[in-house]
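Reply to dn_fold:

You asked what the input looked like. This is it:
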Amino acid sequence: MAFMSSISFRIAALLLFPALCTSDDRLVPGKPLLPGTTIISDGGEFAFGFFAPSNSTPEKLYLGIWYNTISQFTVVWVANRATPAISSMAPSLVLTNNSNLVLSDVDGRILWTSNTTTTTGSSSPSPRSNTTGSVAAVLLNSGILALRSPSGKMLWQSFDHPTDTLLPGMKTWRSHKTDEGTRLVSWKDPNDPSTGTFSFSAETEPFMQLFIWNGSLPEWRSSVWTGFTVSSQYHYFQPNTTSVGVYVTYVDTADEAYMVFSVSDGAPPILSVLSYSGRVETRIWNRDSAEWAILTAWPDSGYCSSYGYCGPSGYCDHTDATPTCKCLDGFEPVDKDEWSNARFSRGCQRKEALQCGDGDGFLALPAMKVPDKFVRIGRKTLEECAAECRGNCSCVAYAYANLNASTANVDVTRCLVWIGDHQLVDTQKMVVPRYSTAVADTHETLYLRVAGMLSGKRTKTNTIKIILPTLAGVIVLTSILLIWVCKFRGRERNLENHKTLIHGGFTSDELGEEKTTNDFELPFLKFQDILVATNNFSNTFMIGQGGFGKVYKGTLEGGQEVAIKRLSRDSNQGIQEFRNEGDENMLIYEYLPNKSLDAIIFNCARNASLDWLTRFKIIKGVARRLLYIHHDSRLTIIHRDLKASNVLLDAEMRPKIADFGMARIFGDNQENANTKRVVGTYGYMAPEYAMGGIFSVKSDVYSFGVLLLEIVSGIKISSVDRIPDYPNLIVYAWNLWNEGKAKDLVDKRIVDNCLPDEASLCIHMGLLCVQENPDDRPLTSSVVFNLENGCTALPTPNHPAYFSWRNSDMEKVREGIMNSKNTMTLTVIEGR
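and this is what came back:
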C-alpha cells in the first residue's frame, strides 16, 4: 500500500479528469465506471474508482478502493495490479449480464475481471438485499466491494481477494483440504502497486503458523498456534479519546484455519498492511496529527527477529535490553570468533554429545517461540508426547498444547517434536509483559534434551530464573497468577525452614503427588519479606477485606507488586483442608490495578466505562479460564465461589479468576462430591449445592451463568432496587426472556453501543447455565465454544433454579439453616 499526500493526488486527479464527479454506492449493468467518476460507500468511509499512484507516470491508471474520509490518500485494494490501464486508451469498468466485473480499454483488451463464476463462496455476512431487481456491485462502508444477486446472495467480494492490506473483518485463511488460501503481496515500491517480492500467508502444514516470505524464502515466522482464540490484545490511547482495542482472533474448523482482526466501536481507521519493505504493520489513523501511527510491526525492530537469524540451535533473546543471539542451554557457538563479530548464521553446537537415555534429560524453557521445522505427531497426550521424544534418540526437543477450547478438528492434541539439532531453527525467548497472557497465548514451553541432566554431570551455564511475572504467565489460564501458603509453626520452630508450597490452595502431599526432578522450582518468601512489604501489616497497606481475611498490597524486593490475603483464624470453614492448628496462612497473588469486577460493574460512577466490547471480552475470558480449571488442567478444580468479586481485572481489563480458598480437586473419574459444610455466596450457589451439599463442574457453571447475567445487566444478583417487582436478577431475566423482551435486560448505560446478537447470545447462555437441573446445564467446553463462535442454534432454557422454590425455603437459605438427610452446616457469605 502506498501513501500519497492528498494535495498531490488531487492535482493529478484534476489534471487527468477535469470533470471529476461522484456517483452513488453501486454499479449496475449498463452504467460503466469511467476515469473521473467514483463510487462512494453508503456511509462515506471508502471510495472506489481509478487513480494514478504517481505524478511521474500519470498515464498509468489503477482501479482500486481507498479511504474517502482522511486527508492522506491511502489505497487498501487494487484490482489490476499486473495490467495498469492507460488513460489515453479510455478504460472502463462494466458489470456484465453474466455477473462479471470486467475492466477493458477502447481496443477491447481485457485488463482485469472478477471471474465471478470461478470464485468460491464467502463466509462473510451477506450485505443488505439488492432492491434494484438486477445484479449490482456495491461498495460497503466496511471497505468491501461486493457483487450480489437481486436476492442478496453474495457472488463475489473484494475481501476474498486482498492485495497488500487487511481491514477489520477481513481474514487470512488456509484450506485444510486444498491448501488454497489468501496471500497478501506487497507493492513493488511506494508508487508502484504492481506485485513486489514480499508476501504474507497462513500455513497449516505441518501446523498453523504465519509467514512473511521474500520470494520463496521465509523472512519472518509467527509463533506456532497453541490453540488460543484471541491474541494481540492491546489498546491505543489518543488525546481526548477513549482507548481503542484491537483483537486478532484465530479459528480452526474442519475445512479451514484462519485469523481475523477486529477493533472496538468508534475506533478511527485501522488497517494491517504488508509494506513494500517486507513488514506487516498494523496502523491507526491519528486524527490530531493527520497521519498514520504504527501500533505493531512484524518483524519488530530487533535485528534478530528475522527468520533463522541466530542459526541452528541459537535463539534470539528478547528479554535483554537489546535483543541478542544466544545458544540454547547445553550448546556453544560453532565459531566463537564469528559469533563475537555478530555473525550468527552457523549457529551453535552441543558442548557434550547426547547419550540416548544414559543421563540425558529434558530442560523446560518457558516463554519461548518454539523452533520451525518440527514434526507433528497426532493423538498424543502430554505424557505420551514426552515419551515419544524420550524414546527416540534422534528427538532433541518437544512441545505440547491442548486445542480443546478452540478447534473443531477431530484431533485436539498438538504434539510437536524436533529431529536433529539442525532443525532447531528460528527459536526466540520472548518478553512476558507484567500484565499479559502472552505466555498462555502465543508463547509456550520448549522441552530441550540436554546431556548429563540425569547423571548430575551437567553444569548450569544458562540457568532459567522463574520469577513472579513468568510464573504468572505459565499458570495464567487458571487465573491464579501465583498462590502459595507460607506456614509458620510457633516460636520454637525455625520459620525459615518451615515453608510449604501450595498449588492453587493445596499442598503437593494433599494432592497425592510425588515431587520429581522435573517439577518447577517455585520461589519461597520469608515471613520477614512479607512484614517488610506490608510495613508489618499496616492498615495503610490494607486494600480490602474478604470473607476469610484482610487483603494488603505489598511491594517485594525487585519491585513486584502483590496482593496478600492474611487469612483470619476464626473464618476457617472453607480452608480447613490445608490449615493446621497454630499456623498462619496467607494467599499471595499478583496485584492487579483494576481490582475486582464488582468494584466496576456495580459502581454507578465507574460502570459506564465498561463498554460492551470490554464486557463481552470479560465474559469470554472468564469462560475460557473456567474451562481450563474444569477440563484442560491436569487436575479438575471446582472453584465453589465464582462471583464478581472473585474476578480480578488486570491493566488491560483481562479477567483472572481469584480466591481458590474454597476450591476442591476431583479425581480422574469423579463427577461430583458431597459435603456437610456448604460454603459460598448467596445467589451464586447452585440449588443442589445449597440444599444438598452436592457440587460438581455444573455448580460452577451455575455461578458463571449468574455472573454472565450480572455483567450484561449491570445488576447485582442480590439487588432488587432496580427490579422492585422481582425477587432477584434470575427471575427478572427469565420473565423478560419468556415475554420476548430479553434485550431489555441489557444495561441502559451501554445499550446504544451494544451488539444485539452478542448480548442475546450471552443472555441465552446465562439462562442455560442457571437451569435448575444440573444435567440440563451446558458443559464449560460448550459454553466457550458457543460464545467464541457466536452460535445462535442453542436449546431453549428450562426454568431456572430458585424460580420454583417456596419463599420459606429462600428464607431458610438466607438464615443459613437447612435440614437435609444429613445434618449440614450452611455457611453463606453475603456478597459485598
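The two ends are 54 Å apart (CA to CA).
Hope that clears it up.
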